[in-house]
Amino acid sequence: MMYMHYCKPCHRVHMLNGHKMTCPKCGGSITELRIPYMEYVSMDMDERNAFKTRCADETQLKELSTTYRMYKYSKWYKELHG
């Protein structure tokens, strides 16, 4: 399943399969966004740029983000902390 993520260090919105914690471009920490994949891909370029600008603001990013609560059950998480 595709999930939207935002990377603050490189100021990019990423469409990634699965719940990821690191940016594929810079390796920095990323934030999972609440916006559904299909809603994001239906936006035009101006809407996407406005959305990215909203993500760059710390207050708005908190409103736009979500927390994946099942990390501790993921295989990669168990290997990392096991």
Summarize the structure in words.
The protein has 82 residues and is of the alpha+beta class. The chain has one domain (2-81). Helix content is 38%, strand content 18%. The protein is built from 4 helices and 3 strands; from the N terminus they run βββαααα. The protein has helices at 37-41, 45-56, 58-64, 75-81; strands at 2-7, 12-17, 30-32. It has a 3-stranded antiparallel beta sheet, with no helix packed on it. The longest helix has 12 residues, at 45-56. The radius of gyration is 13 Å and the shape is globular. The model has no long low-confidence stretch (mean pLDDT 87).
Please describe the topology of this protein:
Elements: E1 2-7, E2 12-17, E3 30-32, H1 37-41, H2 45-56, H3 58-64, H4 75-81
Antiparallel strand pairs: 1-2, 1-3
